[in-house]
Automatic annotation (TrEMBL):
Superkingdom assignment: Eukaryota
UniProt xrefs under InterPro entries: TNFAIP8-like (IPR008477), TNFAIP8_sf (IPR038355)
Pfam families: TNFAIP8
UniProt-recorded name of the protein: Tumor necrosis factor alpha-induced protein 8-like protein
Upper lineage: Eukaryota, Metazoa, Ecdysozoa, Arthropoda, Hexapoda
Amino acid sequence: MYNMSAASILELQTWIVYQRIAAECANCLFMTDNAFKAKDIGLRAQKKILSRMASKNVAKVFIDGTTASLLDNVYRLVKVHTGSKKDAERLVKNVIKIVIKIAVLHRNGQLNADELRQADRFRVKFQTLQMAILSFYEVDYSFDLNYMQKSLADCRSLLRSCVVRHLTDKSLGRIDEVFDTFADTALLETAFRQDSPYREIMDKIVVDLNKAMENGDI
């Protein structure tokens, strides 16, 4: 019988949920292909064991209408800023994979007491960051680049501390790539300018973010 490591099981569970999200969100801009493949025959053989995770209800935990719209608009922002459709797709897909893995770890009770405390600290810090984004965008001349970058760095550190014991270097690299993208000085300064060329996209992101926070989705 094929013996799977904890990391392999986590990868498989993530793959299953990701494929359900891909099916549920087939019309989303960022979901243009199934980039997350199960390469190992042994992993594919184990899919039936964990197939219960692939229900529509599980998918909706991660992607609802507001969240899909927010991710689409983040995709648009990154695509316009980088000029790369591929980079924008990879970023949003990495966000989804990270969220799935953390949720699976929590669902399976694999986070210890210290990791759960760090997760709570991350949640509070991330909510504060979201409020800052809304404030900086809605209040003229209030944008503070140093605050944004420090908050993003703090969120990255807290998130990594929750999962470093469980994730592969590749998955940890995805976390770094996501935060590096959003902390990019040129992106932040351009996005929050009064005459920003990204104004239309940012308007939509702010609407989605407000709605998601009101609904408790993020």
